[in-house]
């Protein structure tokens, strides 16, 4: 992989990881149209996700201190332990699905029609959740049932085109969470999900040569820098309650991909 390709894919990852438009779907589309690009499998995508994970850890460092110490005004150590437990419970479904269907998920990145269809599903979900969302529940109001439902929705996002942030934020809105609370839980939930995916693919790292490592580092750094800048923009956008606009974008992009596939096969 060239340095240019690594920068391009890292930029795509950084921009789309925190928007509810499916970073994996955009990466699959970008990889499909890059001349001479050979699909490297999940490992490079995991490296890019690690870059945006670093951005999440840095941006939400105060929340992570609270989870580690319970030190936050008006809260107790039990509040932090409860939130950690809910995040762990939400992570269980995606771990099970990833372990059972890892090979099939990797193959899905090569099926452009599936990416397009999944983007349309994401678009429909965003529009539906935005329409019915009217809740005022905060982070401390999340129940075990909420955590399980959000976790099940997150497991669907293993498919390229299904947005992880879109499905989890949408699920939170459907469960009556306030926009900011749904977004915060979604971003915190990305941490164990990405760490787990990385551990699952560590064995693949042994097959990466020294030349490839340079491109991987460039991709990681680009995703980190772009992702960090994007987080603040996305949170302000969510605060304006214009979440549904992303749904229209996903429907349009998914429809365009399906149209391309259909015309290409006709």
Summed up:
The protein is mainly α and 266 residues long. The chain is built from 11 helices and no strands.
Key terms for this structure?
single chain, 266 residues, mainly alpha, 11 helices
What report would you give on this structure?
The chain has 266 residues and is an all-alpha fold. Helices cover 76% and strands 0% of the residues. Helix 1 packs across helix 3 (42-59) and helix 2 (23-33) runs antiparallel to helix 6. It is globular, with a radius of gyration of 18 Å. It starts with a helix and ends with a helix.
Range of strand content = under 5%
Q: What are the low-pLDDT stretches, counting only 5+ consecutive residues below 50? A: none
Order of helices and strands: HHHHHHHHHHH
Number of domains: 1
In whole angstroms, how far apart are the ends?
A: 32 Å
The shape is globular
Largest beta-sheet characterization? none
**Mean pLDDT across residues:** 84
Could you give the count of β-strands? 0
Q: Specify the number of helices.
A: 11
Q: Strand pairing plus helix content: what structural class?
A: mainly alpha
What is the share of helical residues? Answer: over 70%
Could you tell me the radius of gyration in angstroms? 18 Å
């Amino acid at each position: 992989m060239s340095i240019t390709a690594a920068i391009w894919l890292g930029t795509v990852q950084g921009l789309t990881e925190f928007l509810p438009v499916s970073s994996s779907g955009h990466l699959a589309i970008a990889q499909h149209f890059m001349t001479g690009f050979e699909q490297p499998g999940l490992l490079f995508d995991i490296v890019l996700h690690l870059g945006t994970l670093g951005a999440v850890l840095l941006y939400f460092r105060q929340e992570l201190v609270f989870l580690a110490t319970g030190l936050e005004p008006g809260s107790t150590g039990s509040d932090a332990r409860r939130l950690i437990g809910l995040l762990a419970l939400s992570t269980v479904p995606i771990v099970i699905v990833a372990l059972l269907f890892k090979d099939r998920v990797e193959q899905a990145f090569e099926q452009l029609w599936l990416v397009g269809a999944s983007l349309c599903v994401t678009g429909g979900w965003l529009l539906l959740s935005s329409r019915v969302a009217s809740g005022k529940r905060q982070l401390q109001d999340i129940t075990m049932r909420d955590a399980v439902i959000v976790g099940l929705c997150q497991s669907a996002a293993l498919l390229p085109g299904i947005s992880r942030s879109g499905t989890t934020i949408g699920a939170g809105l459907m469960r009556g969470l306030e926009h900011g609370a749904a977004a915060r839980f979604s971003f915190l939930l990305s941490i164990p999900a990405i760490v787990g995916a990385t551990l699952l693919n560590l064995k693949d790292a042994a097959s990466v040569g020294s030349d490839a490592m340079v491109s991987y580092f460039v991709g990681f750094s680009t995703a980190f820098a772009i992702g960090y800048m994007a987080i603040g923009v996305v949170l302000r956008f969510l605060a304006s309650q214009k979440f549904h606009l992303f749904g229209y974008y996903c429907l349009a992009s998914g429809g365009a991909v399906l149209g391309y596939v259909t015309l290409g096969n006709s």
